[in-house]
Every structure is written in C-alpha cells, then in structure tokens.
C-alpha cells in the first residue's frame, strides 16, 4: 500500500521526538537499561498514541521489510524509542520467529503478550567462552536437551542473554541427538537462574545482558518450536531479518546524533566563526551525511531481497558489516565535532557512540561476517570453475 509505511513512520517519529526523548535523562535508566516501570510507562504512552508494535498490523500481518525499515528507523531516533514502541531487540526478532514457526497454540500463548506489549522476551543462544560454548560458532553449543516422556529436559549455561532479567517469555536453544532445537518457555522459572548481569558498554536494553544457568529445565514437548534438529534453520529465519532490524534502529539513532552535532557546530563559535565553517568540522558532518544516506540505501536493498522471498544470509551479512562500520564512523565524528560535550552525558551522542560500538559485535562481529562472505566467494568460484 503506497504511503502506508510513511504514514506510520511519521506518527512514530512525532511520538519519539515529542514524548519519548524527554525521558532520556530519567533516573530509571541505568547501565543495565531502563527499568520495567519506565518500560511500562512508555508503552502505555505508545498504546495511547496508537504506535505500539507499529510494524505488526491489527490483523497480525507484518509490514514488508522495506516498510519495516521506514518505521523502525523512526522508532530508533531515541535509544528509548524502540522500547516504547515495542520494536526493540530481542522482542522484535522473537515476535518474527514465533510468527513464522510457532503453532497457533504457541502464538496465542507466547506471541500475543509480546505483540500487545505486556511482556518482554529473551533469546537464549550464546554460551560462555570459559565453557567453550557457542558464540559466533553455534555448532559449539554445549547446552543439551533430552526427551523424558512428554517433556524435554534442558541443562547448560548461556551468556549475553539480553533482557532475561524481567522477561516473561524465553526462546531456549539446546542440542539433542538430532541437532539444535528451540523451545518456548514461561519466565521466570526456578530451573533458569541468573548468575549475574554483565556490565557492558551499551545500556539501552531492559534487563541488560545476563549469564544464565539452566539446571533440569522441564519443557512440555508441545512447546518445541518446529522440529528436533532444525534449530539452526530457525535461527537463520530469525537472525537474517534481525540483523537488518538492528541496522534500521541504529540508523535512526545516528541520524539523531548527527542532528545534535550539526546544531552544536552551527551554534558554537571558535576562532571567530561557527565550528561548521571550519573545514575540519564541516567536512566531518558532510561525511556523516554521505554515510547515513549510503546506510539507508543498503538497508533498502537488503529489505527488498528479503521481501522477494530470499533468505538473504549473504546480503544480511553485507548489510550488517557495511552499516555497523559506517554508523560507527558517524557516531565517532559526532563525538569529535562536539568535543568535551560529545563525551559527556549532556546529550545522547555519548550513549549512541557506546551503543554503536557494541553493535559492531552483537549479532555477529564484523570479522565473522567477512569470513562467511569470503567462504561464499570461494564456493562461488569453485562452482564457476568446476
């Protein structure tokens, strides 16, 4: 529907700029993200404004990936925007996965409260390095699941589990004799224990990132997502669009940081003229404009591939690398242009810089995606020269 996404995005942008942004200094925001009282308050405002979960329509259908890009970019104009509008990670990706793979009963029980914003979720995949567990290499998964009657029993440890503290819905990955599996679970559960919440450079996601122990978790067999042994396939269904969603949201954040840096450079004077009139400053802002525009084009290109029905794993890897690296340059230039103010908490520029630095690692670090692309290059060459 022409203009549908633009109309939704315009409402989201007004809401984020006018209602959400003033809460960026709220004391309920901590190093482990906004607390649940702030999340509930902001989602109440979003519900009243008609912009809660705007990428999912009332009939349960999703906007196209291209349309979602427009809406999620608007929600990302504040670090709190995706939380308020219910477009944040990991919930947005988990909603997408359950919607694609879950049965009608699982959607009613687990997806519905996520879509209506009454629950948060967590995705339990990454494992501690000290256990030689799964990280960038998911085949190293140590968490196990075994069938016991009409239940599965899960044991293992997980780390960097975003939002586990305070979540009501969990998607747990474990390995059976068939291979990787996924399970939907109610949270909290006494068999799932938070060992600690990590102190990380980023601070935008409720609940932070936790280290988790899973000891004898019993899950009814009908709460398995899909089939035993197909968990890695389902992970790609989630992760390819999710990487792109990260790009969309953080493009919005860097757009706002650029706006703040431009305003600062146009108002602040030094050596007899506004900062922006010094080439050393003005050229950095010009480079920002170029990088931001290129990021938007890359995101739209990858979204079109996903909308065409292709999984787009290589394309999502290319987008993740190109966009995260370009946005890092943008965020860094914003800090540099603003000098001491840029490294202070007086604006969101400092937080955006920290968030983007983490983004270069989350959902696969740049180097892993490049390695994956290099393997594809070699594979394509072999096929072409067979």
Automatic annotation (TrEMBL):
Keywords: FAD, Flavoprotein, Oxidoreductase. Residues 229-376 form the Acyl-CoA dehydrogenase/oxidase C-terminal domain. Residues 122-199 form the Acyl-CoA oxidase/dehydrogenase middle domain. It comes from the Bacteria. Its cofactor is FAD. The keyword Cytoplasm does not apply. It holds the Pfam family Acyl-CoA_dh_M. This is Acyl-CoA dehydrogenase family protein. It comes from Sphingomonas colocasiae. The lineage of its organism: Bacteria, Pseudomonadati, Pseudomonadota, Alphaproteobacteria, Sphingomonadales.
